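Long-time lurker, first post. I've been practising inverse folding by hand and with some scripts of my own, and I keep getting stuck on stretches where the structure tokens seem ambiguous. Below is the full token string for one chain I'm working on. Before anyone asks, I'm not after the true native sequence, just a reasonable design that respects the backbone. If someone could post their per-position residues I'd love to compare against what I wrote down in my notebook.
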């Protein structure tokens, strides 16, 4: 099964002007229960760094409930929401993305997924919402951890990675530095002739990201040839993206996918992204089972903490993997 992506062109920071109609681009939609799923996943990670997950086993009622509760949070008065901000990086943020000057037509909450750790701003978010919101978030995080782990297990099996669970264990352990981001791209009062930046182009620094959104369009990914394609929304499915860390660990065999969100609609968009990250102390380098000779490594070794700290100091569109390159 494949999904058809609509090609677009992007000529400036704030507008999109289609000039041509390239050939359609097909990205796999993968059923994780398919015996050949691991083969399809690896192929998609090599070709696109991106694929769709269908028949995933996550309860539809949980997806509906979390989206409804997130919508209620974003519908609160600005003064109440700002009690959970500014982000540090956790908590509530609006328009400003990070600390390096990136802006977007967006408001968001970022929550840590380490239940054994306490963060003031994460607690502040839940103080502005009913208990059911926190319960739904925690349930959803567990489901997303399971999906990310399953995807990485399939990669391990297909690539014969040793030791077993080398990748998936990084997400399963309690020290895993994972987080959940909920983005709200508000509806506009007027329709603009030019599309506006919701979230600027970037790659995700973690191992993999698992995204779900409502049925409002806006997500686009960049292909190997530099062209951008729109990803049709599907509220019942998930999209998995390869992150920088997995690119390094596969020595560039997998590519972290550059993506962005554009807004030009009277319909609001809500998305939820689970970023599956390794423990802060984990050393990130090409896997020796894939690249035995260090002379063949494209990247040097860094800890996840070092790379994460570096990423927070950069702009969204910066090429951050240069820090790893030998």
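-- Answer (accepted) --
I ran through it position by position. Result:
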């Amino acid at each position: 099964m494949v999904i058809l992506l609509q090609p677009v062109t992007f000529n400036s920071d704030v507008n999109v002007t289609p000039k041509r109609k390239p050939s359609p681009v097909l990205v796999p939609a993968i059923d994780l229960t398919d015996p050949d799923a691991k083969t399809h996943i690896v192929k998609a990670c090599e070709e696109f760094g991106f694929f769709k997950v269908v028949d995933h086993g996550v309860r539809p009622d949980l997806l509906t409930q979390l989206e409804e509760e997130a919508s209620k949070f974003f519908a609160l008065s600005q003064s109440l929401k700002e009690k959970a901000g500014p982000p540090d990086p956790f908590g509530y943020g609006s328009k400003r993305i990070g600390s390096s000057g990136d802006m977007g037509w967006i408001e968001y909450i970022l929550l840590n997924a380490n239940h054994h750790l306490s963060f003031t701003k994460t607690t502040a978010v839940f103080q502005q919402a009913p208990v059911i919101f926190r319960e739904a978030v925690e349930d959803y995080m567990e489901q997303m951890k399971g999906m990310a782990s399953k995807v990485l297990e399939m990669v391990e099996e297909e690539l014969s990675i040793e030791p077993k669970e080398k990748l998936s264990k990084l997400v399963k352990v309690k020290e895993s530095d994972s987080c959940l981001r909920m983005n709200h791209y508000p509806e506009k009062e007027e329709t603009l002739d030019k599309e506006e930046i919701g979230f600027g182009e970037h790659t995700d620094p973690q191992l993999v990201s698992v995204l779900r959104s409502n049925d409002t369009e806006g997500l686009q990914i960049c292909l190997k040839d530099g062209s951008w394609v729109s990803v049709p929304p599907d509220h019942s499915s998930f999209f998995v993206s390869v992150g920088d860390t997995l690119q390094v660990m596969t020595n560039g065999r997998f590519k972290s996918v550059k993506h962005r969100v554009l807004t030009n609609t009277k319909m609001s968009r809500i998305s939820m992204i689970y970023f599956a990250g390794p423990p802060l102390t984990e050393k990130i380098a090409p896997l020796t089972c894939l690249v035995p000779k260090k002379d063949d490594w494209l990247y040097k070794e860094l800890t996840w903490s070092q790379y994460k700290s570096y990423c927070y100091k950069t702009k969204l569109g910066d090429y951050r993997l240069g820090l790893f390159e030998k």
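A couple of notes from the structure itself: The longest helix spans residues 131-159. Helices lie at 37-47, 60-74, 78-81, 120-127, 131-159, 168-172, 244-249, 304-312. Happy to go over any region you disagree with.
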